[in-house]
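Q: Given only this backbone (309 positions), what sequence would you predict?
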């Protein structure tokens, strides 16, 4: 942090304590935000932590919109604010509720499994949610032989490789634009330059990238894998914010971005300045209509019943 950032960080920490607030930051947030957050994790991990913090009255979610919506669903008794109100996830926007409705009508015998990286209005229409780490487990637990799955088609492809069920992706080509940036050439070049490194890729990456990776997993799975692996070098194919966290919390190993420009502009809309204002003014608040919140929460809770977390 520079001097200005340090001064602002001190103000945030002071105000956070005064307001009994909890600052939660996704793995893709700016490093200066990660440094002062109470907890850094993936989206569901942040929501779970918020549930555990019984004394917190205000949740500041330094994330994108669908993650803050999940916080509201799982913490209905707490006030949730998002520093950057225009931090919209393009992939989540690819699957509005209407598309889920049409798919259910077209495939009435199929179960509907939606990635948590989905808007609440869509979650409210599914049978169960999943994360990138438990998607296979959730799908294989279902009785139905056909599964409507969205919105990420690459994650749907990954699930299809680990199940005998028919996976129907909605939309057909839904994607995360950040993970779409990684190419097979990036991985091959990284292997050539770092022959001793392990290649870790997110299941939102394209199939050709997944096929040549050494390990495929969610951000939390990648993070823990680097701790447990005896390797000292890792090529990381996900948003660069996770590498910032790895370098800070796990020094002594080398983390190489598979593509250094893999940056989520929506995630980076959150800044220290916006966090300070969100704390001070307790806005922008995140709210959901009660019927949508109730149905969406049910889908997330069913996931927890299946996976135990």
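A: Predicted residues:
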């Amino acid at each position: 942090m520079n001097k200005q950032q340090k001064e602002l960080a001190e103000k945030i920490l002071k105000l956070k304590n005064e307001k009994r607030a909890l600052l939660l930051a996704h793995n893709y947030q700016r490093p200066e935000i990660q440094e002062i957050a109470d907890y850094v994790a993936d989206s569901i991990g942040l929501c779970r932590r918020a549930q555990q913090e019984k004394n917190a009255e205000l949740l500041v979610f330094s994330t994108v919109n669908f993650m803050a919506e999940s916080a509201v669903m799982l913490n209905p008794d707490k006030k949730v604010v998002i520093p950057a109100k225009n931090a919209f996830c393009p992939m989540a926007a690819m699957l509005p509720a209407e598309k889920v409705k049409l798919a259910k009508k077209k495939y009435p015998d199929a179960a509907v499994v939606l990635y948590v990286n989905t808007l609440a209005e869509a979650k409210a229409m599914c049978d169960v949610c999943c994360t990138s780490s438990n998607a296979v487990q959730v799908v294989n637990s279902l009785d139905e032989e056909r599964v409507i799955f969205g919105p990420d088609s690459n994650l749907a492809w990954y699930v299809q490789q680990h199940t005998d069920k028919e996976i129907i992706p909605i939309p057909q080509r839904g994607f995360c634009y950040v993970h779409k940036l990684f190419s097979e050439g990036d991985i091959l070049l990284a292997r050539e330059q770092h022959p001793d490194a392990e290649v870790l890729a997110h299941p939102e990456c394209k199939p050709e990238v997944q096929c040549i990776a050494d390990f495929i997993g969610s951000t939390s799975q990648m993070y823990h894998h680097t701790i447990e692996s005896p390797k000292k070098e890792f090529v990381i194919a996900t948003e660069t914010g996770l590498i910032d966290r790895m370098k800070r919390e796990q020094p002594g190993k080398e983390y190489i971005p598979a593509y250094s420009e893999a940056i989520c502009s929506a995630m980076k809309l959150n800044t220290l300045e916006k966090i300070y204002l969100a704390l001070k003014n307790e806005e922008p608040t995140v709210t959901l209509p009660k019927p949508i919140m109730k149905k969406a929460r049910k889908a997330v809770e069913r996931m927890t019943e299946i996976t135990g977390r």
